[in-house]
Amino acid sequence: MPSPLTIITTLLIVYLTSYIYRLIRNYLLARKSGFPYFIVPWEQDHIIWMIISVPLRPWLKKNLPTFIYNRLVLTIYGFEFTEKLRMFQEYGGQDVQSYVMVTVGKYEFSTRDPELATEILRRTRDFQQQDAIGVVLDRFGKNLLSSDGEDWVRQRRVVASTLNERISKTIFEESVKQTEGLLGDVGGGEVTGKLFDGMKKITINVLTGAGMGESVAWREDEDEGVKGKGGYRMSYIECVKVVIECVAGPIVLPKWFLEWYPSFAPGSDLLRRLNVAVEEFPRHTWELLDKEKQRMQHGSGESRSNIISQLLKASEDFEGEKKGGKALSDDEMLGNLFIFMGAGFDTTANTLSFALVLLARHPEWQDWLFTEIDDILPPPGSELSYTALLPKVTRILALMFETLRLYTPLIHLAKQTRAEQTITTSSGKTFWFPKNATVYVNTVAIHMDEKVYRNINLKPGEESKDNDELLFRPTRWLNADNTTLWTAPKGSFIPWSAGPRVCPGQKMAQVEFVSIFLRLFGEFRLEAVPLKGETRREVEERLDARMQESFSILTLQMKDLYNVDEEEKGVRVRLVRRK
Ligand code: HEM
Predict the structure, then answer these.
(1) Residue 91's domain spans which residues?
(2) Is 21 a member of any domain?
(3) Which member of 153, 373, 491, 538 lies 3.0 to 4.6 Å from 118 by CB, making a disulfide possible if both were Cys?
(4) 540 touches 534 (CB < 8 A)
C-alpha cells in the first residue's frame, strides 16, 4: 500500500508532466503557425480560473509585478476591453497584427487584422462556433447561433427571412409607443437614474410586442401580462429577463440542482427564479405559438407582422417547398424564439444606454443631432412614419455606429477549428491553424485601427488629432457631402460580425435605435446631473471613468447602471424639454 506522501508526489509529478507537455506542444504549434507568439504558462480555460479571475483582477493588478500582470491579464475574460491595443502593440506582428498566446490550456489565436478577420468570418465551415456556445444557449433547444454546417444553413434560411421589412415597420411603431410610455415616467424634468432601466424595458417590450405578438402597455405590471392565465408563477417577460440574466453561467445548472439549492445559500433567490423561468418559458412560448397558429387559421390566412407569425409562415413555405421536410423541429422552434430574445435584448439595450451616456458626457453632439431631427420630424402631435422618416436619418445612425465602434457589445467573435486550416493573405503569406484552435477576432482592437479611423471624414472646423480613433466623434461616419453614411473598409467595422453569419437582427436594432432617439430627442435634451459640489469638468471625468470601467458578461455593459437605487451610484440624468 503506497503512503499518502507517495500518492501526492506521484499525482504532482503526473500533473507537472502534463503541464509541461501541453506548454511545449502549444509552443511547437505556435512556431509552425507563422504568427508571432508569446508564452503565458497558465491554464486560461480552467473552470476555477475562469470563475475567480474576473473578480480577482483588481487585486492582481494591485499586487502582482507589472510584467507578470500584463501577461496574466490576457487570460482573464473581458481583457479585450480593459487592455485595448496593448497586446497587439507588444506581441502582434507589424504586417498581420495577430498573435498566438502559448499557454497550458487551449491553443489560442487572436487577430485585429481586417483581412484575416474577414477570411475567418467568411469561412464558416472551417472556423465554426465554439462548443461552449451550445452548452450555454441550447437550454431550450438547438438554434441558429449554436449550429454549424447543414443544420445552420437550414435554420438560417428560415430564421433570417423572418426579420424583414414588415417587421421593421412594426419595430419602429412599437419602439415609438414604448418610448412615449417611458417619457410619461421620466419626461417631467426630474432627476432620474432610471432612464437606463427604461432602455432595457423598451427593448424587452419591443421584442415581446413586435416579436411575439403580445403588445405590452408601458404601465402594465410586469407580474401581470400572461401570468395567471394558465397558473403561471411568472410572466413571459419576467421569465425572459431571468433566463437572460443567468445566461452567463447559472443557465447550465441542471434542474435538480436548482430544485434542491438551499434557500439560505448565496444567490438562492436568483436560482429559485431561474428554476421557475426554465420551466415556464417553454410553456409561455408554446402558448404564444399556439395562439398565433389559431389566428392564422381563423383569420384571413394573412400572417401578422411579428417575428413569431413570420417564423410560422417561413416554416410553412419551407415545408411546402421541401414537400414534407420539416423546417424547424419543435425543439429548434423553441430554441430560436429564445435566441431572438437572448441575442436581441442586451446587445440593443446596452448600445442605447452607452449612446445616452456618451451624449450626456458630450452635450455638443446633441445639438448636432437636433439639426437633423428638427429638419425631418413632422409638426408636434403628428404620427411618426417609418417609411417617411427612416430614409432621411443619417446622424442618429452615425451616432449608433460610433457608439458600437467604441463600446462594441461583443468584444470578440469566438470561433474554433475542427481540422487544420490555412489562410493565405493578399501579400502571399500563408498562415497555419492547428485542429481545435480557439480563434478570437478582437472587435475592440479592430475598431481602433488608426489606419482606418484616424481623422477620417473631418468636417470643416474639426481639428485632426493624433488619438482621434480613440475619441467619440460621430461625424467620422458621414461622407464629405454630410448627408450620406460612410462605409468602413471590409473587416474594419464588425459589431454585427460579418460574412454569412452576420447578425440577422442588424436592421431591427438600427430601426429600434433610430425610432427611440427620434422620439426622445425630438422633444428633450439630456443633461448629466452633477453629484454634490461637482464641477462640469469633474462630471466629465466621472462619466469617462465610468464608461472605461465597463465589463463584459456576454455583452459589454456599464457597472452599476441598471437597478441602482442609491443616490451616489448609477448615472443620474435629467430630461429637459427643448421647446
Ligand atoms: C446592437 C444590437 C446587436 C448587435 C451588436 C448584435 C451582434 C451580433 C453578433 C456579433 C453576432 C454574431 C455572433 C457570433 O457569430 O458568435 C450576432 C448574431 C445573431 N444575432 Fe445579433 N446583434 C444585435 C441585435 C440583434 C437583434 C435585435 C436580433 C434579433 C431579434 C439578433 C439576432 C441574432 C441572431 C439570431 C444571431 C445568430 C446568427 C447566426 O449565427 O447565423 N441580434 N449578433
Answers:
(1) 4-140
(2) yes
(3) 491
(4) no
